[in-house]
Amino acid sequence: MGPKMALTIRDGTPQDAKQAHALMQALSVYEEAEADFRIDAAAFEEAAFSTPPKLGFMVAELDGGIVGVATYMRRFHIWSNSTIFLLDDLFVSPSSRGLGIGGKLLQALGTKAKAENAAIKWEVIAGNEDAIRFYKRIGARVTAKGICWWMPENMAG
Q: Buried-most residue among 23, 100, 125, 135 (CB within 10 A)?
């Protein structure tokens, strides 16, 4: 990054919710999954700031604009008998890629999880070799497990 670029990684605020939602919507387009993206900006903000919150999010702010987002949930993990963080989305706007922003978002979430002695679990598209190499480099274990979605409209009864 040049000397004029100021990057801040921080917890998202209600004022950031609309921009964070727009980045997540851009991710759905990138992943060709727009039909699956059903949350609107108001519902996203409500989920993030309800009591208790249904999700958390961190943002990457570059020169005053939100250019990256990481969304996560805390949940109990039976096998480890502990709370874990589930990273749901990690996305950096295409115009801001190549600056290490995604890695910095992930490291900041790691700092937050480590403070709670919690692991982080997430999914990666099997063919995303760049991401898989990066995850392995930071010490994550990548497994070849498939993901199944059984949608209510496809269930009997």
A: 23
Domain holding 11, by residue range, is: 7-154
Instruction: State the DSSP H helix or E strand holding residue 135, giving kind and residue range, or none if neither.
Output: helix 129-137
Residue 153 C-alpha from the chain's centroid: 26
The helix-helix angle for 41-49 and 17-30 (nearest 10°) equals 120
What are the mean pLDDT values of the chain's consecutive 10-residue runs (157 residues total)? Answer: 76 97 94 92 97 97 95 94 94 92 94 94 87 88 80 81
**pTM, full prediction:** 0.87
* Domain at 70, CATH number: 3.40.630.30
- 1 belongs to a structural domain: no
| Domain count along the chain | 1
